[in-house]
Specification:
alpha+beta, 4 strands, globular
Length: 100
């Protein structure tokens, strides 16, 4: 997420692996009901992880659309917001998104 623009592909791969190993896998182990964890920042960088499903990469345009949707629906005071939606169209209204 904090790699500079134009970073080498291997650097992106390595950072993604570290995020998965130290941050995401422990979440999925402790909370197997989690379906997806994703991080999106305001610089257009994003990383998505799917529990038990194929890894999917969203392109920059898809991430930007998702970020704008989250911005519109998220509380400005930083408190958690519950949304009845999903980044996967097939899961709409069947999943809850927690965003901050």
């Amino acid at each position: 997420m904090d790699l500079p623009a134009g970073a080498e592909l291997y650097d992106v791969y390595r950072l993604r692996g570290r995020i998965r190993e130290y941050g995401i896998q422990p979440l999925f182990i402790r909370h197997p009901e989690l379906m997806t964890v994703y991080l999106v920042n305001f610089d257009g960088q994003s990383v998505y992880f799917f529990n038990g499903g194929p890894e999917t990469w969203l392109n920059h345009e898809q991430s930007a659309v998702r970020l704008e949707t989250l911005r519109e629906k998220t509380r400005s005071d930083g408190r958690l917001t519950l949304l009845n939606d999903s980044i996967m169209a097939s899961q709409e209204a069947r999943r809850i998104t927690i965003v901050r």
